[in-house]
Amino acid sequence: MSKARVPWKAVIGGSIGNMVEWYDWFVYSSFAVYFAASFFPEGNDTAKLLNTAAIFAVGFFMRPLGGWLLGRYADRRGRKAALTLTVTLMSASALLIAIAPTYEAVGYFGALVLVVARLLQGLSVGGEYAASATYLTEATPRGRRGFASSFQYVSMTAGQLVGLGLQIILQNTMSTEALHSYGWRIPFIVGAAAAAVVFYLRRNLLETEAYDEEERESAQSRGTIKALLAHKKEALLVIALTMGGTVAYYTYTTYLTKYLSNSAGLPKETATLVSFCALFIFMCLQPLAGGLSDRIGRRPLLITFGIGSMLGTVPLMTALGGVQGFGGGLVLSLIGLVIVTGYTSINAVVKAELFPTNVRALGVALPYAIANALFGGTAEYVALWFKDSGIESGFFWYVSGCAAVSLIVYLTMRETRDVALSRTEQAMQESVPTRV
């Protein structure tokens, strides 16, 4: 592996904002079991969760718009500017949820406020993923890009862990009644405040060399749909390779706590602790897998994920539905997350390596957001729909089918590990023999 130095300031700056973005995105799902009754009338508990899951999915359907607008913004105004804007939008949406009025006070108007907040979150995250992926990839020298870009999912998972950790603290320091009444608002207030700190940190980031080179060219086609259409094959590739990964990721992260609680019958506190411990180990695995991809390439990891997810989801989820305690739940959850690591650790860098600089952010953002709207955002809703229909195992086969489609793509796509991302990098690459 290359001994080029990892630019830690850029990695930390790009990642810490991503952590706050995904903390805010994740706590909506993890705290839904507490605030669902606040925005909908009395009724079946699963029906209330279906309503909040539907609003969760609404945020995903804004992600293509966010991917287009903020991806274009990142290609035309810079990665740093886009990163600053996305965290500002996320802070505003978290604050909206924190102050949203309940059904008892204003009827369905409170649910409408939730929808607006989720629309803002979707807009923000639709651009954040691409801006972060592009920045981390471009700011790192060839030979360390897999390792550095893996911190995107380190930061995403850290955001989830902070949310889960706060949930554990609140569960052990507040009564169940208090959590359902007002305690669920606390994590959203924390998220809004943290975003203000990240805004300051991101203002001090340096722009990437690849973008500075492109900016000097003053190309009018930067970040346009016309420029993206010149790379239709790559855009479709992003959608297809994301399909299986995003469904599996949300199955073993955001949906897992609900599944262990509603289906396996574990106490909420135990289900939350299982998710926390599994996600912490999962987070630590990301740089290891990202570094491995710098040595052996991206495709072997993606193929391993595709095979594991296609063949392992049904038996794993079936077994998880029958766990009796913390130990069994943790082991089975970890098996699923180890498989998912083959996708999460490198999916950002693979997508960034597929496109040229003038359309890289948009090329990553829009196709990825479309795939997430169609598959990732609906995963939880589809799972709850199968459960409500009495055929919960149907969801496991759905996840396996999505993984099978992506596996075909992994087997046929080109390797991207050694692609040059800037003219300077390309010149250096041409002066050194290509690695076999």
Automatic annotation (TrEMBL):
Q: What is its main location?
A: membrane
- Keyword set for this entry? Cell membrane, Membrane, Symport, Transmembrane, Transmembrane helix, Transport
Q: Where does the UniProt annotation locate this protein? A: Cell membrane
Annotated Gene Ontology cellular components are:
plasma membrane
Listed SUPFAM superfamilies: MFS general substrate transporter
Family label? Belongs to the major facilitator superfamily. Metabolite:H+ Symporter (MHS) family (TC 2.A.1.6) family.
Q: What is this protein called?
A: Putative proline/betaine transporter
Give the lineage: Bacteria, Bacillati, Actinomycetota, Actinomycetes, Streptosporangiales
